[in-house]
Design a protein that fits this description.
The complex is a heterodimer. Chain A has strands spanning 9-10, 15-19, 24-30, 33-38, 40-46, 53-67, 71-76, 80-85, 90-95, 104-107, 113-117, 120-124, 136-140, 147-150, 157-168, 178-191, 197-202, 206-211, 216-221, 230-232, 238-241, 247-251, 264-266, 273-278, 284-289, 294-298, 304-308, 315-320, 326-331, 335-340. Chain A is mainly beta. Chain B contains 10 helices and 16 strands. In chain B, the strands form 4 sheets. Chain B has a 7-stranded parallel β-sheet, with helices on both faces. Classes of the chains: A mainly beta, B alpha/beta. The interface between A and B is medium-sized, with 34 and 27 residues.
């Protein structure tokens, strides 16, 4: 495989190896502290100069997480929505009355939290100092919610579901949520940083997109597997996606987005990419493969840097620190690493 | 396919179907209460009336989602995609998964979920569809409830339950009705769903490597009838068009034979080699056109100039096949295919199959 050839630049030796007990399902950074989310019960915090700590956040499975640099919000099959900070302090934000699974969570730019249980999506606005009365807004989707995404501006949420998606202004009581139609099951959602495009992942190995100004459709297909991971490049010029044996980047530089354009394809490999994560400030994408390989790819010219050699377990988590200095990776079998690129 | 983990590491999933009141929950509770030392994750409908005694019970919504490919029979259970994704985060905490469907559920979207969703197919495997039938009421349900017929036709294992509530004549009547629809399922007659658990669990009915034998199952009782039915179904054109729903029976060797007007099985056989360049286009075209009507199909094939046995199976339009192993020296090289479906064009299928034989 070309990627692990001897002439490839490597940053593998800059890795701080971490071993946790249990499969890793996601990774985040809280400042310089890496957080590895386990499939069950706990989040493992690894401060830059300290020992790792295992913070129990849920009774059983952790089904979804989102982070904004200051806290991780997680949803579990115990019906709880929990916020955890870098010090390991965790707090229950909500407890589903019927103990339904919390399938999805999302964090808004102004501290709002959204989550869903079955067909119901909830939004809790940020608590102000004066009001402890956190008003909970509720939206009943036409089918099980497949994914949630906040817009970066305005208090607005995109909800993916069967046969389309819904755009919801939780504070606009009385205004009907806006329905975007497209046949099929939509299982994930992301909004472009400029708020002009909504992209959903589908049950089929493809993406669907809407240009929100005129509801133009975009079909993005050609994947080998269901797309499970999406990441916008710094500035939102590209959407990096998993699900193929190479990194698929859809161009979003123009007002037409990827309409009529072909994606840029980088880091070809015989193995499927399961996770992607774009660097927060430069056009570099970390790609995690199902054979345990991690590569860094420069979008401009496709130059590759080896970040982790292939191993036994698939890569399941990738995250950049907010300053772009640290990259965390995790695998299905609890192997993890933090790479210092400074 | 090559990168998938081996099937032994995958969590087996058993699907329990059956019409309302047939005894699904009785069977489920029996499975859970046996001293087998195994842990099960159980997925049940939200509105089940009988309590389930298990640590891990998940409520399902039975959401059937069409795939966005223009095919109405390509469906998945959307709630199962979500629940299985979540359950696999707790792998190691249970040995197997049991999905109990409602009496009105179609088993096909459940089965297709495992074939269509690669992420789920990588971590779990469909073990078998087990249908519980009520000895007293099944005949009535077959007349008025298309779901009941679907569940029988789709099954790998059928329990004729509550046999203590019917006479021997009624029992053989219901057995013959079931055989008229699905002669291939393993059939068990039970009271209060009592039977050895290995009769319903660990069946590997969807494992290509276990497709060994496509002979009809007749409780191993009557070799003569066994053969009779096999020959009969091969040569007979089942595609009657009487325009109304009735069944006709004929009796030979003591066991009644019914033909369900709507749902039949077609068995094809040849001991001459097949031409793969003709067979694959033919079978693809067949399931494209007749997919909505074909519930299940299975086959063991002998191709010309090919030392390997080829096996395949399908649910509606979805086909899954592979070379299984070399033909052994003492084994007769022959091809055999079984279709179970609704209003199947028997002559067209038979003619099409015969055109794939190397001449």
């Amino acid at each position: 495989m070309a990627a692990s050839g001897s002439d490839t630049v490597s940053v593998v030796e800059r890795t701080r190896p971490i071993a946790v007990v249990g499969g890793i399902v996601a990774a985040h950074f809280l400042g310089p502290t890496a957080a590895f989310v386990l499939g069950e019960e706990a989040i493992v915090l690894v401060p830059p100069d300290g020992d790792m700590r295992r913070i129990i956040t849920h009774g059983d499975a952790i089904l979804a997480t989102a982070a904004d640099g200051a806290r991780i919000v997680s949803g579990g099959d115990d019906g709880k929505v929990v916020a955890t900070d870098a010090n390991g302090a965790s707090r229950v934000l909500a407890n589903d009355a019927k103990h339904r699974w919390i399938d999805h969570v999302a964090l808004g730019p102004d501290g709002a939290v959204a989550w869903s249980a079955g067909k119901t999506a909830y939004v809790q606005a940020k608590e102000s100092n004066k009001q402890s009365n956190k008003e909970l807004r509720e939206f009943e989707a036409p089918s099980t919610v497949g994914g949630l995404a906040f817009f970066s501006k305005g208090f607005r949420l995109a909800i993916a579901h069967y046969n389309g998606a819904t755009l919801w202004f939780p504070n606009a009581t009385g205004a009907a949520p806006e329905r975007l139609e497209w046949k099929g099951s939509h299982l994930g959602a992301t909004v472009s940083p400029d708020g002009r495009f909504l992209v959903t992942t589908m049950q089929e190995p493809m993406l669907h997109g809407w240009r929100l100004s005129d509801r133009q459709h975009m079909r993005m297909s050609g994947y080998a597997a269901r797309v499970m991971s999406l990441s916008w490049s710094a500035g939102g010029q590209w959407l990096a996606t998993s699900g193929a044996a190479q990194l698929v980047l859809w161009p979003f530089q123009t007002k037409d987005g990827p309409m009529g354009k072909t994606p840029r394809l980088l880091t070809p490999s015989g193995h499927r990419i399961d996770v992607v994560s774009c660097h927060p400030s430069t056009d570099v994408v970390a790609t995690g493969y199902n054979n345990g390989l991690v590569l860094l790819a420069r979008i401009e010219d496709g130059a590759e840097i080896l970040a982790k050699k292939p191993g036994d377990a698939p890569i399941t988590a990738l995250a950049w620190s907010g300053d772009g200095r640290l990259l965390a990776w995790g695998t299905d079998s609890g192997e993890a690493g933090i790479i210092d690129l400074a | 396919m090559s990168e998938q983990s081996s099937s032994s590491e995958k969590i087996p999933v058993t699907v329990l179907t059956g019409y309302l009141g047939a005894g699904k929950t009785t069977l489920l509770n029996r499975i859970l209460s046996e001293p087998h030392g195994k842990k099960y994750a159980v997925i049940v409908n939200e509105f089940g009336e009988i309590g389930i005694d298990n640590d891990l019970v998940v409520g399902a919504d039975e959401e059937v989602f069409e795939m966005n490919n223009g095919c109405i029979c390509c469906t998945v259970r959307g709630d199962l995609v979500r629940i299985l994704d979540g359950l696999m985060r707790r792998k190691g905490k249970f040995d197997a998964i049991i999905v109990e469907t409602t009496g009105l559920a179609d088993p096909a979207p459940v089965a297709q979920t495992f074939f269509i969703d690669e992420n789920i197919g990588r971590k779990t495997k469909l073990d078998a569809v087990v249908t519980v039938a009520d000895a007293k009421w099944l005949n009535e349900r077959l007349k008025d409830a298309p779901e009941a017929k679907n569940q029988i036709a789709f099954a790998d294992v059928i329990l004729i339950n509550k046999t203590d509530l019917v006479s021997p004549e009624e029992l053989s009547e219901v057995e013959a009705r079931i055989r008229g629809i699905n002669p291939y399922a393993k059939l068990h007659k039970t009271e209060r769903a009592q039977l050895p658990l290995d009769a319903v669990l660990g069946r590997n009915a969807f494992d290509l490597d276990r497709i060994l034998d496509l002979e009809p199952d007749f409780l191993g009782s009557d070799k003569h009838d066994h053969h009779h039915n096999h020959d009969h179904s091969r040569d007979h054109d089942h595609n009657h068009h009487h325009g109304h729903d009735h069944t006709h029976a004929h009796s030979r060797g003591g066991l009644k034979h019914y033909h369900d007007e709507e749902m039949q099985s077609i068995s094809l056989h040849t001991d001459k080699p097949l031409d793969p360049d003709k067979f694959f286009p033919w079978v693809q075209d067949l399931v494209q056109k007749e997919g909505p009507n074909i519930l299940r199909c299975k086959g063991i094939l002998a191709f010309k100039d090919d030392d390997q046995r080829f096996v395949f199976q399908g649910v509606h339009m979805i086909l899954d096949g592979d070379h299984q192993r070399p033909w052994s020296a003492d084994e007769k090289r022959e091809s055999r295919i079984v279709f179970i479906g609704r209003n199947l064009p028997g002559k067209m299928i038979t003619d099409g199959f015969e055109s794939c034989i190397v001449t």
